[in-house]
Specification:
The structure is a single chain. By secondary structure, the protein is of the alpha+beta class. The protein has a single domain, classed as Collagenase (Catalytic Domain), CATH 3.40.390. The chain is built from six helices and six strands, in the order H-H-E-E-H-E-E-E-E-H-H-H. The chain has a four-stranded mixed β-sheet, covered by helices on one side. Strands 1-2 form a two-stranded antiparallel sheet. The longest helix is centred in the first third of the chain and has 21 residues. It is globular, with a radius of gyration of 16 Å. It starts with a helix and ends in an 11-residue tail after the last helix.
C-alpha cells in the first residue's frame, strides 16, 4: 500500500514530502471553507459556492463558467516561467475538461501555512470562476473572515492589481 502511494505521488508530479505540505494546505482550506459555508449564499462575488466546494474537496466539478465538467490536477512547477513570480497559478482555460493548478517551489516555504491556505482559497476561485484577481482575493478574504474572524493583510497585492476600482471589496 505504501509503495502504491509513493508511485501515485511520483506519477502525479508531487514528491512525498511536498505532497504532505500540499495536502495540509488543502485540508486547512477545506476546513475554512466548510466553517464559512453555513454563512454563504449560493453565489459570492460571482463564484458558484457549490461548484467551488466540489472543486476544492473533490477536484472535480460542474462548471457554469467553463460550460461542463472540469477535473482539477495539482502539479508541481519549476522555479522558472510563471513560478518565478508566483507561489501558485492556474492554467486557464481548461483543456479537454482538465485544469491544472501549478504549485511553485515557494509554495512550500517553511512557516507559511496561513499563506498556503489563502493561496489555495484564492487559486480555487480561478479554477471555478476565471482569471479575475480581485474576485479571487475578495472571495478568499471573505472565507477567511467568516471562518476565522481575521483577514490576511493583502493591501499591496490589492493595489498592484487595481482592485480598488474593480467593484469587488475585501471585508
Amino acid at each position: 500500500m505504501r509503495l502504491a502511494l509513493i508511485v501515485f505521488l511520483v506519477l502525479s508530479g508531487l514528491m512525498p514530502a511536498r505532497a504532505g505540505v500540499v495536502e495540509s494546505a488543502f485540508d486547512r482550506a477545506i476546513a475554512q471553507f466548510e466553517a464559512a459555508l453555513p454563512k454563504l449564499q449560493a453565489e459570492l462575488f460571482g463564484v458558484d459556492t457549490a461548484a467551488y466546494r466540489d472543486a476544492l474537496t473533490l477536484r472535480n466539478f460542474a462548471s457554469r463558467h467553463w460550460g461542463g465538467r472540469v477535473e482539477l490536477k495539482v502539479r508541481e512547477g519549476s522555479s522558472d516561467g510563471s513560478c518565478a513570480r508566483f507561489a501558485a497559478f492556474v492554467r486557464l482555460p481548461p483543456e479537454n475538461g482538465t485544469m491544472s493548478l501549478i504549485l511553485c517551489p515557494q509554495f512550500s516555504t517553511e512557516g507559511a501555512d496561513s499563506l498556503r491556505t489563502l493561496t489555495i482559497l484564492h487559486e480555487m476561485v480561478h479554477v471555478v470562476a476565471g482569471p479575475n484577481e480581485c474576485r479571487a482575493m475578495a472571495f478568499a478574504a471573505e472565507i477567511e473572515r467568516l471562518s476565522t474572524g481575521a483577514v490576511t493583510p493583502v493591501d499591496v497585492y490589492w493595489q498592484t492589481n487595481g482592485c480598488d476600482g474593480s467593484g469587488f471589496r475585501r471585508p
